[in-house]
Design goal:
Layout (H helix, E strand, L loop, with lengths): L3 E4 L4 H14 L5 E5 L5 H7 L3 E4 L10 H25 L3 E4 L3 H12 L4 E4 L7 H6 L5 E4 L2 H4 L8 E3 L6 H4 L5 H7 L8 E5 L6 H14 L5 E5 L5 H8 L6 E4 L6 H6 L2 E4 L3 H10 L3 E3 L9 H10 L4 E3 L7 H12 L10 H4 L1 H15 L2
Parallel strand pairs: 1-2, 1-4, 2-3, 4-5, 5-6, 6-7, 8-9, 8-11, 9-10, 11-12, 12-13
Organism: Candidatus Atribacter allofermentans
EC number: 2.4.1.227
Membrane topology: Peripheral membrane protein
Length: 360
């Protein structure tokens, strides 16, 4: 009956920060995740040792009548399912990361007068979090720019993004990382990482660009996602340089440390990780991201360090190769020892626990 609900799921961009905070919360209260069976939480949350309950929830697609009706039905069912969870477990607090699951959970939290905490990772806050923020005790945002998207500044806490300590532990270990991966410490390494699920579009564009950059003699680390993994194995065999392939890797810190530049999407997690590791990057924001939030993230990073932003609709092999060449000529990366990112998970958890105890 003393549980804290965490509504987070879908991709690793929500789940990994949520798990970081949950590790600290669980020292004082049991934690239960609420998600859907379609997201990565189905695998990652139980592996981390936390309870997980499923509800039905789906984003609205107004371009298709069938999809709209399916979403309507799922969200109505999910509303009753989440209400049942509140009656059964009577949570002490709710932490939401922004999604339709979050909206359903926050509705019941408001009804049952359970304190709500919002965790926003993106520079441009999502629709769900903007709505929920009106009912919240605290709104945790990573940087100053992210606070501008919320109306009520009294609840905002600028606290950094809850990056995992095990990822940041690889900062400054370039040589060790390359040697552990079997790479040459003297050669430049290119990292391709299309988000927690990979990006088939980026994978294809990179392979088409390879003939244009082969003379640069990069070593390659490629996180492909499951859709492109088998094809990547075949492509790697065609080239003489070291080409490491991973379908998914839970701790990319070793890759960031080993890399000299990156090609990536610009979800919140990877954006702040690239920032902390000082990696120059070609960023290709996901066009389907809600309200274009990945573009805002990419533009923010571009103000902090060398970045080339390419619209995925204009992604061409020659343009990608040119961006890689221009970034490869830059000086070595510079790490940011930012305590707001290393310790934000502990600080967020501490504020939530303090509020719960204050309400006893």
């Amino acid at each position: 009956m003393n549980e804290i609900f965490i509504a987070a799921g879908g991709t690793g961009g929500h789940i990994f920060p949520a798990l970081s905070i949950a590790q600290h919360l669980s020292r004082d209260f049991p934690v239960r995740f609420i998600g859907t069976k379609r997201g990565m939480e189905r695998k990652l949350v139980p592996e981390a040792g936390f309870s997980l309950s499923f509800i039905r929830a789906r984003g609205w697609n107004r371009t298709s009548a069938i999809d709209f009706l399916r979403a309507f039905g799922d969200n109505i069912v999910g509303l009753f399912q989440s209400g049942y969870l509140f009656i059964k477990f009577r949570p002490r607090a709710v932490l939401v990361f922004g999604s339709y699951v979050s909206l359903l959970i926050a509705f019941w939290a408001k009804l049952f007068r359970v304190p709500i905490f919002v965790q926003e990772q993106n520079i441009h806050p999502g629709f769900a979090n903007r709505i929920i923020s009106r009912w919240s005790k605290k709104i945790f945002v990573p940087v100053d720019e992210a606070a501008e998207g919320f109306r009520d500044s009294n609840q905002i806490v600028i606290i950094g993004n809850p990056l995992r300590e095990e990822v940041l532990d690889w900062q400054g270990k370039d040589k060790e990382a390359k040697e552990k991966l079997g790479l040459d410490p003297q050669k430049k390494t290119l990292l391709i990482i299309g988000g927690s699920r990979g990006s088939h579009l980026i994978n294809q564009a990179f392979w088409q660009a390879l003939p244009f950059i082969e003379k640069l003699k990069f070593q390659v680390i490629h996180i492909t996602g499951d859709e492109s993994f088998q094809e990547a194995m075949k492509m790697a065999a065609l080239y003489p340089f070291p080409y490491l392939i991973y379908e998914f890797y839970p701790n990319p810190g070793i890759f960031y440390s080993a890399a000299d530049l990156a090609i990536s999407r610009s979800g919140a997690n990877v954006t702040y990780e690239l920032f902390c590791f000082g990696l120059p990057a070609v960023l290709i924001p996901f066009g389907g991201a809600t309200e274009g939030h990945q573009l805002y993230n990419a533009q923010w990073l571009g103000k902090k360090q060398p970045v080339v932003i390419i619209d995925e609709k204009r992604l061409q092999p020659e343009g990608l190769a040119q961006a890689i060449r221009s970034l490869s000529e830059l000086p070595a990366k510079k790490y940011k020892k930012n305590e707001d990112f290393r310790f934000s998970a502990a600080r967020i958890a501490g504020m939530i626990v303090k509020e719960i105890r204050r309400r006893k």
